[in-house]
Amino acid sequence: MMSERGDRWLCIILVCTLSLLCTEAYDVGLTFLNSAVAKGAVCLDGSAPAYHFDKGFGAGIDNWLVFFEGGGWCNNATNCLTRRDTRLGSSKKMLTTETFSGMFHNKAKYNPDFYEWNRIKVRYCDGASFTGDVEAVDPKTKLYYRGARIFRAVVDDLLAKGMKNAKNAILAGCSAGGLTSILQCDNFRSQLPATTKVKCLSDAGFFINAKTIIGQSHIEGFYADVVRTHGSAKVLSPACLAKMSPGLCFFPQNMVQFIKTPIFLINAAYDSWQVKNILAPGVSDRKGTWRECKLDITKCSSAQLNVLQGFRLEFLKALNGFGNGNSPSRGMFINSCYSHCQTGTQETWLRNDSPLLGNTTIAKAVGDWYYERNTFQKIDCAYPCDKTCHNRVFE
Ligand SMILES: *[C@@H]1O[C@H](CO)[C@@H](O)[C@H](O)[C@H]1NC(C)=O
Ligand SMILES: *[C@@H]1O[C@H](CO)[C@@H](O)[C@H](O)[C@H]1NC(C)=O
Fold first, then answer.
1. Fold held by 5-379
2. Where would I find the H helices in 194-297?
3. Phi and psi for 241 in degrees, rounded to 5?
4. Is 78 in the pocket of ligand 1 (CB under 6 A)?
5. Where in this chain does the entry annotate a coiled-coil region (predicted)?
6. In this predicted structure, what is the pLDDT of residue 380?
7. For the chain, which ranges sit under pLDDT 50?
8. Catalytic residues
9. Cα of 223 to ligand 1 centre, how many Å?
10. What are the sequence ranges of the domains in the chain?
11. Considering only CA atoms, which residue is closest to atom 13 of ligand 1?
12. DSSP one-letter code for 269
């Protein structure tokens, strides 16, 4: 099972250990969507989906940020069973509060363009980026594969709670949730009123179909299993499915060109999750030669850095279909940091020391693009040129 739970915790602990930063975040309670259960829109264990909702105010009452949480994927019954009774498979195990910071903050100083919006963080509990829809419940494991139903039920619920009057809306997410915001972008658009200005934002959701350090195909088979197990094909891009297999259509690089709704990508070209799990997963590094390097990019040997530079070039190549002739509806902030998810933490979203690209913070690039004050399509120079990165160091 691929999970980033430990990383997230480490990050929250770090933020709060540096006590002066604690005002940069605040807690929001958990709302269970019990009405979804009757629609069969449930977590892996059959429990109700859940989200954290901080209501909009002032000029933002008709603006909605709907953000989907990440946390890897489970690709088959064995791995989904392992996940079922954790917070990534059951709302019974979720923490009842969540830290809101960065793009979720309710203070203009920390989040100038979206602080008054309705801000919703949807908990991840289906294991397939909110794409699954299998009617049958496995009698042996009692596993439900219903992520796409959760997606629809959450959006319907928010429409009923006022989003049907939305002037502005953003579908966003980080990691596996960032993939949701790419794969489900046009579906979200079609669920909202035609009068709403809808855009999508993917944070660290551009997972590429790369081979491992020993040239094996790893993520491709894994994604094919995810899609098969969860019955995800129904929500994937029809234009992509006409050309290739459902498993391949789970990769943004194969379907992003077909997205009609405006979309912005934030991603590190050396995405730390992708390096750890796509490029150098444990199965391709039996001797553990990559262990130190994966934990801390400054520990990589020059040979390993060469491999990472190759990964960056592959990443940029996979992005080729995205730019769409520099259409202003498409934005991208591709920096050269060793990181994963940069919108939900204050230090990477907007602070005096946060990452810059073209002298611009992520908060400003996204705000300018959403409100059409400016276009933004930038790719950073190669590592280690960027001194503004907050590179991740794992324990
Ligand atoms: C489930 O997936 C894992 C990881 O890809 C693999 O090691 C395992 O053999 C699979 N199990 C089954 C029963 O297919
Ligand atoms: C970068 O932006 C800051 C603040 O907007 C400005 O003061 C500074 O002159 C800019 N630097 C460059 C090199 O453009």
1. Rossmann fold (3.40.50)
2. 219-230, 238-241, 252-255, 272-274, 291-295
3. -60, -25
4. yes
5. none
6. 98
7. 1, 4-6, 8-9, 11-12, 16, 19-20
8. 175, 271, 340
9. 12
10. 5-379
11. 78
12. T
